Amino acid sequence: MLSINQSFNNPKSGTSIIKYFSDEYILFERGNSKIKFPFNYLDKIYLLYKGTKLTTSELHREYPSIFDSKKGGHSCNATFLFMMYEYLGLTKNGIEGDGVAHHPYYIELQNKDL
Hints:
By secondary structure, the chain is α+β, with helices and mostly antiparallel strands. Helices cover about 30% and strands about 25% of the residues. The protein has a four-stranded antiparallel β-sheet with strand order 1-2-3-4. A hairpin with a 3-residue loop joins strand 2 (about 15-20) and strand 3. The longest helix is centred in the last third of the chain and has 12 residues, at about 75-85.
């Protein structure tokens, strides 16, 4: 279960800390930024991609308003989503990749019923 001030280690460095959550979104702090992640995307993306490999590049391309800082979203939402899936035990091997253009972060989602 998620809790306020719960901390998650970001893939390269630093932490993301949950500051607030509701039925609509999770507000987390990463560095000096406070970022909202829409809760409904946690289920929506898992149901679409379970049993497959999912990259941060795919999230930026398919859902730019959530995951692409250049198109109204926030790039940190992608790794935050991956950390949530890892925390919930929905990944096979955790977060992999280098977090760069030709070697983005990725996860392999398990095929579980929610």
